[in-house]
Amino acid sequence: MSALAELEARALGEIRGATDLAELKRVEQAFLGKKGELTQQLKQLSSLPKEERPAFGKAVNDCKVSLTKALEARERELKAEELSARLSSEGFDPTEPGSPVPYGTLHPITQITEELVDVFQGLGFSWLDGPEVEFEYYNFDALGIPGDHPARESHDTFWLRDGNVLRTHTSPVQIRAMERFGAPLSVIVPGRCFRNETVDASHEHTFYQMEGLMVGRDISVPHLIYTMKTCLREILRRDIEVRLRPGYFPFVEPGFELDVNCPFCEGEGCKVCKQSGWIEMLPCGMVHPDVLRSGGLDPEEWTGFAFGLGLQRLVMVRYGINDIRDFTGGDLRFLKQFNRI
Ligand code: DAH
Question: The pTM is what?
Fold first, then answer.
């Protein structure tokens, strides 16, 4: 056995035999340190005949690599041993199953938004966004709500100092969509809206709507009814009946209130539907010719329908929730009931 091989075997034995990190450090110094045995070997290099030097140099280097690897492996082992010794002395058992980490759930409004987007994308609608701080023009004027119109009052708007508003509905995105994409057009716009409301069980200053707009050639009321029925059947998870009553909104003509048959009494009449057998679901209508014009479209050529779905209301009807404040109240007992992640 060459001196080098003997040195390597001895060093490996000492490395394996080291019982703690301090001892391992000493072994490292003894062989690889400045005055270590292997380092000394290297110093012999210059005294060797020239032709033997490369082979000897390589052998020393191989030995160094092998010792370094063994040192690292032993260090890992000793560290792991030290850790488990320390943990078990502290009464910690690493083989015990961990305790579950609490995780959050999607808010019911997020869940219903995702479901609606899914249904409407299946019907060929595109998902669009709009600004929450809106120009007065888009929020009111372009939708046929002039300065002195009572609808502006009823919207209880948050006005900003610069004359802009926190949008009171998602309808302004109708105009933005027509301006930007022209016709034909099918879009949905879920989003947050704001009104200066006194908060009670059915009113919130911050709420969520989803606007829908379809513009094309010969779009008429049956398209509206079909679309709403398809969507509500999916979301309310039952076969539904709808009915239209006249409703007034300046940006639709004719305008409707769309009702669905009451899920609680099957149309018999109960407390929830105030004995009528119907529940008011959403306002909608045929897009007013002036609104098409505001969007840059010719009402002789294009027609369309629009609707504004209140998302809290939809969730409330689906789950029988009776207080709108629960959505933003931050009560985990409420939120945890919608435990989809
Ligand atoms: N933007 C209306 C509101 O928030 C709701 C609405 C009514 C939207 C009729 C529509 C519609 O698109 O056709 O009060």
Answer: 0.71
- 3-class secondary-structure state, position 149: coil
* Ligand 1 centre distance from Cα of residue 284 (Å): 6
Indicate the domain borders of the chain: 3-88, 108-338
Q: Which CATH number fits domain 108-338: 3.30.930.10, 3.30.450.20, 1.10.3720.10, 3.40.50.300?
A: 3.30.930.10
> Which runs of consecutive H residues, i.e. helices, occur in 212-337?
221-236, 289-294, 311-319, 332-335
pLDDT in tens, 139-179: 999 999 987 877 676 668 999 999 999 999 999 999 999 99
Distance from Cα 212 to the centre of ligand 1, integer Å: 9
Burial of 338 (0-12, 13-18, 19+ CB in 10 A): middle
Ligand 1: residue whose CA is nearest its atom 8? 308
